[in-house]
Amino acid sequence: MDPLKPSRLEFERLVKEAAEALGIGEVPEVERSRRYGYYSAKFHKYRVDPQRLREFTDGLRGRRLEYLASVSAEGLYLNADLAVDKIAELVFKAVSEMGERYGYTDECRLGRFLVEHTSANPIHPLHIGHGRNAILGDSLARLLRFCGNSVETHFYVDDCGVQVMYAAIGYNAVRDLAGERIRRVKPDVVVGAIYSATNAVAEIGRLKRELAAVQDEERRREIISEIDEWVGVLKRIMDAEGDIVNRLAESLGGRDLVAEAAELNRRYEAGDPEARRAVREVVDLVLKGQRETLSRLGIEIDRWDYESEISVWSGEAARIVAELQRRWPQYVESRGGAVVFRADKFVEDFKLWDVLDLPKFIPPVTLTRSDGTTLYVTRDVAYALWQTRQEFDRVIRVISTEQTHEQAHVRIILYALGFQEEAKRLMHYAYEMVNLPGAKMSARRGQYIALDEILDEAAERSAALVKEKNPEVAGVIAERVGVGSVRYAFLSTGPRKPIEFKWETVLNMRQNSGSFLQYTYVRAYSILEKATGANLAGVVIPGEILPEERELILKVAEWPGVVKTAVHALRPDYVAEFLDGLALVFNSYYEKAPVLKAEEPLRSFRLALVNAVKNVLAAGFYILGIPTLTKM
Fold first, then answer.
1. Which of 20, 230, 488, 570 is the least crowded, having the fewest Cβ atoms under 10 Å away?
2. CB 91 within 8 Å of CB 553
3. pLDDT per residue over 517-567, tens digit each?
4. What SS3 string covers 521-543?
5. 3-class DSSP state of 297
């Protein structure tokens, strides 16, 4: 079901013939030509006479070519153009048979995948950075599924660590107020404020204790300045949650929260029932709110994996530390009671940079604190081992580039434990940050741009683009336009490039935005809806077609190749870029060529072309997670 495959095979046969005629043992690769025709093959490195290549093409005159319109030689390039009428027949046949599944080919099937994404700390709402993670991971899963692969999406619930404990301690101190507030506000928003305020109270208390023990005046001034900063954090949170902040300050102000959080974390990791109840209550409240946000984006998670269950209570993290100490005592050190693995020396001695695709610099890694509790990386190794033991060919972990070293440590430790193949199946799918001009983010200080805020503003701004007069329907459409715009904004840039999030770009109705693509789909849908009784079977291809029609036919024909390239490279942005180009050509065509008023058989041909564009857009929307609209 790839309309371009027959023409490519036909040209490859000609290239092979040319190589044999020129006495070349190697056959040049076929490329997409940007200068001469559609396909091209370079003979430059074979030092042949250009005249002999021209003689070969001259000898093809009179030969019947099925899918190629012409073959020519330009210097040492062998080129061919396409018989667009034949390509159009194949396009219409494929679209007719496959509908919105058009684009799928057997070459896209790669196996079974586990895609872990989002995995935000369960202490506050998802923020704009999590949005890129979630949308990237979801679209990777959609791309793989579109191509017939088996995919499971997982969310790693990081319910251990002192930050989660701060949220639990703070929530327990204001349970009644928090319960009342949650009846009116999303639970992750309320817990997020409690966490940030509790963290601020803890830092103020720690700094005050340090201040009491410090004599140096310069250091005292520094500490006082830091205390003022944290007091400022509390004042800012009070604007939204005044009662909760006041209660927290009264209840927790005189306590050593740093020590309390460490002790609660130790008890939680030990499986203490009361600690489990207190922590899980808060974690599950946050996850409830995060699920709601993901649902707005059309994202569903197949499985929620709790760090405590997989890595800690199972004893797996502790076993990993013990096994490293047993296997590689020469690489394990004790530093102040903490256990440290010399990953830097291990990689150097075993030359693992290329084997595990590692960054050039690898630091040592601390596995446990001095109190014996495990750290994030140790628990993550246990989770990675659990992931690779599931029945998947590859595990894709969508995690920011900030964790490049941590994820390298995970693969190195797996390798050191004897799980070499498992380490190679583990992929860190790294992505860069999202920058919102003028915004600074720090979850500890309660400064972050919540993803819900972005979606709310996107819907509000999108309302101006919606022409529907029924307020209720218009609101639904605006929400879907907003979601499509945000998703496209996060997917249209390659994952290793930072995103500058600007509303004038996100909602650009002229090009390169989700709303632009949705508007294009609505145009195509509207034409087909009005074409009552249209018969798209057995379409006659006109002898002469417009340049835009030729370009649209070839664009639609290229779609299966784009999907194949995108899935092999794991790059949803290739799909976004292609759809934008298709929409630009289609909108230009829409302005120039009447469809419904055209005479037969031109009318049916143009309707079939519009239908093909609509189906490609629908398939691309599924992959990118852009909501499909029939009116705007």
1. 20
2. yes
3. 999 999 999 999 999 777 777 788 998 999 999 999 999 999 999 999 999
4. HHHHHHHHHHCCCCCCCCCCCCC
5. coil
